[in-house]
Specification:
Largest sheet of chain B: 2 strands, antiparallel
CATH architecture of the domain at 61-122 and 159-302 in chain B: Orthogonal Bundle
Helix content of chain A: over 70%
Structural class of chain A: mainly alpha
Largest sheet of chain A: none
Number of strands of chain B: 2
Largest interface: A-B, 86 and 86 residues
Number of strands of chain A: 0
CATH superfamily of the domain at 61-122 and 159-302 in chain B: MetI-like
Helix content of chain B: over 70%
Number of domains of chain A: 2
Strand order of the largest sheet of chain B: 1-2
Oligomer: heterodimer
CATH class of the domain at 61-122 and 159-302 in chain B: Mainly Alpha
Number of helices of chain B: 13
CATH topology of the domain at 61-122 and 159-302 in chain B: MetI-like fold
Order of helices and strands of chain B: HHEEHHHHHHHHHHH
CATH topology of the largest domain in chain A: MetI-like fold
């Protein structure tokens, strides 16, 4: 009996310790964001704010936060829409139509998961300059779509393979074309996989940093990660202000997470389930 | 066999297949595949990114083999791989076991434990900078409060500790991911196996080593490959936390590649580092895949 309760105590301590380790930095972030700059320097860092100060948030918003926020939203939404369209078209053919190069095409896409972004940086930088879209949000869409493709194709092919062939055969009997089968049969049935792909890519692109760092220079084009990075350089001594920025930037994903927890978790682990 | 001649050209099988595949192949070829040979081609030039490209043969490659910073970066990458696998995977398994047990608050804990993985690396980097800050940072304040002032360090400023400080933040970011991965695998282990072991009177420790871990092993090797590939190309958090410094103590191949290319504008040499990073990653993952596949075969033989 004693041994058992000791074991339980150990479990509780482990659970609580990890709870603190993963949660306290967030508490610190929010608490600090509500403090004044002087208050932060004088009082202990873990002290609760004397009174909630929203001035930091107002300053962050006045500093152009919504511009970066909106840039991130538009790039992510446009890229995710293209990813869904392009990867579902390809996955439909790979998973359900027999043709000679099928497994090669699939293999090449999936192997793309292993390719590090850095080997593409300089060529993509040059391509972007040559296309005349350097330092614009449009520059990000191409690489964002391309680098989300391997996982998207992997997830969608895996899902579409399991859709019963009879459904498609019935449509063929009715004289449906490939395009009609794709839009009327396969796409509606693939909704769960499509939402997984959409959520996964959205999180990935919302947090993306390297391409934004290399392809964007002007302030009005920055996405949220670039905005954060430069805010940090500019106000690195005003910690409460930085923490307010971080809180605002993390908020959208945390909200999505709390409302769609199961889908988000499925989305986040999905890329790892390859054989 | 009916001829296909009656079909309009756009409905013939070959054409339809190509049209469906074309958009994805276009993006993939342009932004992922073509850059690989192009990067290798650039590595043969001296070039500042804007001016003229000067062909210099394998001079960049010769420089790379003698570049102490590159070797330092590679060594740091290997350290990151080893620590990531040895810390993130076991912690992931431990947390996954906790959350799949009948522990009372597992739902709440799961929600909270996942949070670090949701943040962008840039945000995590900024947050951890203030945890590691030497004078008013959270960590040093905490050490002082518990009376361990002698443990206080300049976490990001001391070349001897900076790499480990940064890796610690990386672990914090990625442990939730492996936790989720192992949770998914643990759910798949049938309950009967555990029940049978319970009837035999096996201890929890023994059940873990004889049932859970062997059944989890494919996921473990999978996770190790993910960790290996991810650690070799890691960039974001290091760039934000330490910038690879001080004096290259926490430099990784990816941060070094970025520095040479986009801060010093040595695009030719930057490409060389990029190709080396790609090749090393490719070779190591192949070796690792081979090794784990062989292990699986042996395991299969024993059964």
């Amino acid at each position: 009996m004693i041994q058992k309760s000791l074991k339980h105590l150990g479990l509780y301590i482990f659970a609580a310790a990890w709870f603190l380790i993963s949660f306290y930095p967030f508490v610190f972030m929010v608490i600090t964001s509500l403090k004044g700059r002087m208050e932060f320097l004088i009082k202990p860092v873990w002290a609760f704010p004397e009174q909630f100060l929203y001035t930091n948030y107002i300053r962050v918003i006045e500093g152009g936060f919504f511009r970066f926020f909106f840039n991130s939203v538009s790039v992510s939404v446009i890229s995710v829409s293209i990813i869904i369209l392009v990867s579902s078209l390809a996955s439909y053919i790979i998973s359900r139509v027999r043709f000679r190069l099928s497994s090669l095409v699939y293999g090449v896409f999936v192997a793309g998961m292993m390719i590090p972004i850095h080997i593409t940086l300089i060529p993509v930088y040059n391509l972007t300059r040559a296309l005349g879209i350097y330092d614009s949000l449009a520059a990000l869409v191409g690489p964002y779509v391309a680098f989300s493709l391997p996982i998207s194709v992997f997830v969608l092919v895996g899902f579409m393979r399991d859709i019963p062939l009879e459904l498609e055969e019935a449509a063929v009997m009715d004289g449906a074309s490939r395009m009609q089968i794709y839009t009327k049969v396969v796409m509606p049935l693939s909704k769960p996989a499509l939402s997984t792909v959409a959520i996964y890519s959205f999180i990935l692109l919302w947090n993306e940093f390297i391409y934004a760092l290399v392809l964007l220079t002007s302030k009005h084009n920055w996405n949220l990660t670039m905005g954060l990075w430069n805010f940090h350089g500019q106000y690195s001594i005003d910690i409460p202000l930085i923490m307010a920025t971080l809180t605002l930037a993390a908020l959208p994903l945390i909200l999505i997470y709390f409302f769609l927890q199961e889908q988000v978790i499925r989305g986040m682990t999905t890329g790892a389930l390859k054989g | 066999m009916k001829g296909l001649d009656h079909l309009p050209w756009y409905r013939r099988p070959g054409v339809t297949i190509s049209l469906f595949l074309a958009p994805a192949l276009f993006f993939f070829a342009l932004y992922v595949l073509a850059p690989i040979p192009v990067s290798f081609y650039y590595s043969l030039f001296r070039w500042d990114g804007i001016g003229e490209r000067v062909f210099i043969g394998f001079q960049n490659w010769r420089e790379l083999t003698q570049d102490p910073i590159f070797w330092r970066a590679l060594k740091n990458n290997v350290t990151l791989v080893v620590i990531s696998i040895l810390v993130q995977l076991p912690m992931g398994i431990a947390l996954a076991l906790l959350l799949t047990s009948r522990f009372r608050w597992r739902k709440l804990l799961k929600t909270i434990y996942v949070l670090p993985y949701l943040m962008s690396a840039v945000a995590i980097g900024m947050l951890w900078r203030y945890i590691y800050e030497p004078t008013f940072g959270l960590l040093n304040m905490f050490l002082e409060a518990i009376g361990r002032s002698n443990w206080i360090l300049d976490w990001l400023g001391d070349p001897k500790v900076v790499l480990y400080s940064v890796i610690n933040a990386i672990n914090w970011q990625f442990i939730p991911f492996y936790m989720l991965l192992f949770m998914a695998a643990l759910v798949g282990i049938p309950d009967e196996l555990y029940e049978a072991a319970k009837i035999d009177g096996a201890s929890a420790w023994k059940v873990f080593w004889t049932i859970t871990l062997p059944l989890l092993w494919p996921t473990v090797t999978n996770a190790a490959i993910l960790s290996l590939v991810g650690s070799l190309k890691y960039f974001d958090l290091i760039h934000v936390l330490s910038g690879g410094g001080p004096s290259h103590a926490s430099e990784l191949m990816a941060t070094y590649m970025y520095k040479r290319s986009f801060q010093h504008f040595r695009m030719g040499y930057g490409s060389t580092v990029a190709v080396a990073l790609f090749t090393i990653g490719f070779v190591l993952s192949m070796v690792f895949l081979r090794a784990t596949r062989c292990r699986e075969y042996e395991g299969g033989g024993k059964r």
